[in-house]
Amino acid sequence: MAQLEETGKCTQEVSAWDQVQAARSMTRPVSGDYISTVFDRFLELHGDRLYGDDRAVIAGVAQLGDRYVTVIGEQKGRSAKENKVRNFGMPNPEGYRKALRLMKQAEKFGRPIILFVDTPGAFCGVEAEERGQGEAIARNLFELAGFTVPVLSIIIGEGGSGGALALAMANEVWMLENSVYSILSPEGFAAILWKNGKRAAEAAEVMKMTAVELKKLGVIDKVLAESEELEEVPEQEQAELTGKQKTKNLLPKNQVATAQKERKADTLITADRARMDSLAQRLRAEIEGFLERYEKKSGEEIREERYQKFRRM
Amino acid sequence: MLRDKFKRPAVTEAENTGREEQRAGKENWQEILPQVPDGMFRKCGSCKKILYEKDVRDNWYCCPKCGTGFRIDPLTRIRMTADVHSFQEWDADLCGGNPLDFPEYEEKLEQLRAKTGLADAVLTGTAAIRGIPVAIGAMSADFLMGSMGWAVGERLTRLIERAETEALPVILFCCSGGARMQEGIVSLMQMAKISQALQRYSEHGGLYIPVLTDPTMGGVTASFAMLGDVILAEPGAMIGFAGARVIRQTIGQKLPEGFQSAEFLQKHGFIDRIVKRDQMRGTLSFLLRSSG
Q1: Quick check: B279 contacting A, CB < 8 Å?
Q2: On chain B, which terminus has fewer CB atoms closer than 10 Å, C or N?
């Protein structure tokens, strides 16, 4: 798989803001797409045993060749309907607690942990505060420090702040080339520091939130090339789905529904297989390489390496 | 009124034994602060009454009328808590850089260092609380709202690591708006760095007591503030993860009464105990003795 660390530049000439848009795109594969195409089998497991089952987090045990791993991902929806179910990939505390429960299970049974990060951020609602959103994230960071199994985190879309970090305190952190990772959204950053949320594009450049910039900063370990072009969703359709975009090139109303149906956007774990196969195969090979490398290390070494990685930050 | 001085709420024995010492200590910690000139006033942000500065200081920097605590600088905080003259600073000169090359950030830091006398937004070191040696830290609301960047992260990590080496409990007065925006992703990483240091420290049996003061928000809440063995908080302190305005915008509704106050967090199970300033020393001392 082409590694951008060798070429040192993006395969596409894009601005940071373009990459933010790409990372947020409704047609971008979500965690479930990777889970279903990279692994041979996946058994989803539910619940945090304390409160409920957060649908923004998909988690379970997967088989990859002869190996078994625990897989956890933040799951965005691929349609407006699914986004309601998945809360746009924004976990509540029970999502982080489900992740923690299954990570501890992985530690108990010696399974490596593979994490897929894709969230605008931890959900900021009243109930989230009432159920201790801060504590849930903090507890994940605390416990991740203690694991002796190898932990791999792959940012596949948006790495939204603490809500992402709770699943990204790993031995290795990879990013897909058009994913982003930041302390805050560029809109929030611009609003707080420049009192003007509309300067988001400028903020995106300043924040060094792209994969290539973060590799340069030493915050992440690997940038993974995405060789396929991202599918352009017609503006009208985007407007129907998110309700926020301005409309240009309006499709007649009777054509919108057809366009949506054709995208098969309403099934829960949907991958555009024609587009996913190659990327999934390459990602699989990379993950297998990671597992092979870490099989040679002891639990203490694995834990210490992870500690030193974050100690250096 | 004189009569009011004799009205006390029911106290536990731990608090009671603390009171004699506190009364003794109260004169002492004030003596080492600079004298307040006559005629200095301030206004309470809560009840809006005009107050003599001296009365405020005599009342542990709380409003004598309504009891609301004023924000206090880290050195005063430590002096108020620890035995007189017991504090020794660690890592005094530790300063951060400008990882994002954020414009005018370095100049801003220099101004704040000159103004506050602090290298960054946290003061750390060692002290004694009723004779028990501790590693202690206190954050500064005056330094970029106590925001956490590399320097705060590194200084707290070193505090915890050294506390582990020297077998000291860690007491940390948290006061922060959250992660420091100007340092971007580096600030985010500090959450991980400090949390993992606490995990290691905890595994070796270390006692860690964060005291959450007003405000404690964002990335600080989502890391070290919520990882204490015992989590204390000041009355009425604002403590939360997301900012209230952002939450209101997200849900489009009014927020519940007392949302994100220390009392609210205790009700929902996330704070061990709310401790008034005049009881803090006694409470900490009791916990230190019982968990040693």
Answers
A1: no
A2: N
**B162 vs B13, which has greater pLDDT?**
B162
A217 neighbourhood in chain B, CB within 8 Å = 99, 185-186
- Residue A129 pLDDT: 97
Interface of B with A in 187-246 (CB under 8 A): 187-193, 195-200, 202-203, 218-219, 221-227, 240-243, 246
Parse chain A into domains and list their residue ranges.
4-233+272-311
Judge whether B284 lies within some domain. Answer: yes
Interchain contact, B241 vs A128, CB within 8 Å:
yes
Nearest to B181 among A169, A184, A306 (CB): A184
> What is the domain-level CATH number for residue B135?
3.90.226.10
Average pLDDT of chain A? 85
pLDDT in tens, B30-89: 666 666 666 688 999 889 999 999 999 999 999 999 988 999 999 999 999 999 999 999
Contacts of B138 (CB under 8 A, 6+ apart): B74, B75, B77, B78, B122, B123, B172, B173, B175
The DSSP result for chain A, as a single string, is --BHHHH-S-SS---HHHHHHHHH-TTS--HHHHHHHHSSEEEE----SSS---TTEEEEEEEETTEEEEEEEE---SSHHHHHHHGGG---HHHHHHHHHHHHHHHHHT--EEEEEEES-S---HHHHHTTHHHHHHHHHHHHTT--S-EEEEEEEEEEHHHHHTT--SSEEEEETT-EEESS-HHHHHHHHHS-GGGHHHHHHHTT-BHHHHHHHTS-SEEE---SPPPPPPHHHHHHHHS-SPP-SPPPHHHHHHHHHHTTTTSSS---HHHHHHHHHHHHHHHHHHHHHHHTS-HHHHHHHHHHHHHT-
CB contact under 8 A, B185 and A135: no
Whether B236 maps to a domain, the answer reads yes
Instruction: Mutate one of B190, B201, B241 to test the A interface: name it (highest A CB count within 10 A).
Output: B241
Domain at A4-233+272-311, CATH homologous superfamily: 2-enoyl-CoA Hydratase; Chain A, domain 1 (3.90.226.10)
CA distance A169 to A171: 7
The answer to whether residues B12 and B276 touch, using CB atoms and an 8 Å cutoff, is no
* Confidence at residue A227, expressed as pLDDT on a 0 to 100 scale: 64
Q: Which two structure tokens, joined as six digits, stand for B163?
A: 């506390």
Q: How many domains does chain B have?
A: 1
Percentage of chain A modeled with pLDDT above 70: 80
Give domain status of residue B167, yes or no: yes
Residue B41 lies in a domain: no
